[in-house]
Each structure stands twice: as structure tokens, then as C-alpha cells.
Amino acid sequence: MNETMTQGVELMFTGMGIVFLFLVMLIGAVKLMANCVTRFFPEEAVQPAQAAPRPVAQNTGAPVTAAITAAVHQHRAKHK
Known about the structure:
Blueprint: H1 2-40, H2 42-46, H3 62-78
């Protein structure tokens, strides 16, 4: 039983070590690629993406506002 536990613990630490090394290498590769992109394509990396234009609120007339208000009141009255 003791030998089996020892082998299990060794296998666990070996697996955790391999995963840790893989993640460290992955982080290094991502940082290297980020540095390459900023070095070879500086204008694209520096300029922020343009935000989509905000929709302009249109001034609705009084009849439309009254109709919307009546619809909201009617809905709230039905679903109390």
C-alpha cells in the first residue's frame, strides 16, 4: 500500500509539473507574439479601435409620447 501511494504522489507531482511548465511556456509565447506585433505593426497596435457611433435620439412628438405612456400604464394595470 505504501509503495502505491508513493507512486501516486510521484505521478501527481509529475503531472502538475508538466502542466505548470506548459502554462509558463504558453505565457511566454503569448508575450513574445505581443512584442512581435507591436514591433512590426506599431500603427495598428497604438491606435485604439473606433467606437461605433451612438444613435441620435430623435425628438418624438407629444402624440407618440402620450401613446407610449398609455400603453405602459395599461400594461402595468393588467400585470399587477
